[in-house]
Amino acid sequence: MGNMAAISSSKLALACADFLWRQDAALRSLGLERLSIDAGQATVAMTVLPGMVNGIGITHGGTIFKLADAAFSLASNAYNERTVSAHCSISFLRPTKLGDRLVARATEVVRSGRSGIYDVRVTFEDEVVAEFRAHSRVIGGALLSTAL
Fold it and tell me: Per the confidence metrics, is the pTM higher than 0.90?
């Protein structure tokens, strides 16, 4: 990790998010807006586009899952350790529609050894539309190899 330990956790988290943003076309494909990034936390927003709505006029569940997973990815990879999901589940609580601006806020519940648990709350106008829980696993190696 070199000089990585000497930088603040917030700066490291932001650098890791920047790296993932450049490398991950799936993240960019959603048209996400990063609202905040910190160690173990990330908040992103997305506006529901025509290609994200299903045949009955509501936001496709896979799109909401992808938004929540993106927030989880940014939060869990904030420590400069390559981290993936080992298990994820989502509960859809309220439908959303074309043009709605959804916000996903990921929060680290616990991180121990190579494992972690993260909760992601997806909201529309401050009402909860989905709850997502992810179990993370560090798979080894650093995202960033040089000092910032």
Answer: yes
